[in-house]
Amino acid sequence: MTEAVLPTIPRQDPHYFRRGAGSGWSRPGSAAGQIFWTHNDSGRGQFNFSEIAGNSTAVAISMVYYPGNRDAEDGLFKLGSQPGVDMASNILEEFWPDLERKFSRKHKSTGNGSF
After folding, report:
1. pLDDT averaged over the chain?
2. Angle 39-79-55 from CA coordinates, rounded to 5°
3. Whether the predicted model's global pTM rises above the 0.70 cut
C-alpha cells in the first residue's frame, strides 16, 4: 500500500533520495524528514500522504485480520512505531554506502596494473 498503491493517487515518488553529503545532523535529519515530506512526480515537495495513509491502512487491515488479540491501544502503538521503523530504514540507507566503503575488505586497484 505505502510503496505501490497509494503513491499513485497524489502522484508521489515513494523512493528514498539519498543526500550523500552534508554536515552533522543534516543527513539523518533529511532521512527522517522524508517520512513526512516527499517529492511528487514533477519533483516538487509535498506532504507524504502515501506513507501516512499506507501505514494507517496496513494497521487497519492487521486489526481486522486478527481481531481477537488487537485493541485500539495496540493499533495506535503500531501506527506510532511504523514511522520510527521507516526513519531508521532511511537513515541506514543514507549511511550504508559510507559504512560499506569504510569497512569493506576489498582493496581497489590503482589502475596501473600493480597491486
Report:
1. 83
2. 40
3. yes
> Measured on CA atoms in the order 14, 99, 21, 89, is the torsion positive or negative?
positive
Task: Residue count of the chain, please give it.
Answer: 115
Distance in angstroms (rounded) separating the CA atoms of residues 32 and 16: 10
Q: Where are the beta strands (DSSP E) in the chain?
A: 12-13, 37-40, 45-47
The amino acid at 12: Q
Which residues in the chain come in under a pLDDT of 50?
Answer: none
Percentages helix, strand, coil for the chain (3-state, rounded to 5) are 55, 10, 35
Per-residue model confidence (pLDDT) at position 113? 56
* Confidence (pLDDT) at 88: 93
DSSP code of residue 55: H
Q: Which string of DSSP letters, residue by residue, matches the chain?
A: -TTTTGGGTTTEE-S--------TTHHHHHHHHTTTEEEETTS-EEE-HHHHHHHHHHHHHHHHHSGGG--HHHHHHHHHHHHHHHHHHHHHHHHHHHHHHHH-------SSS--
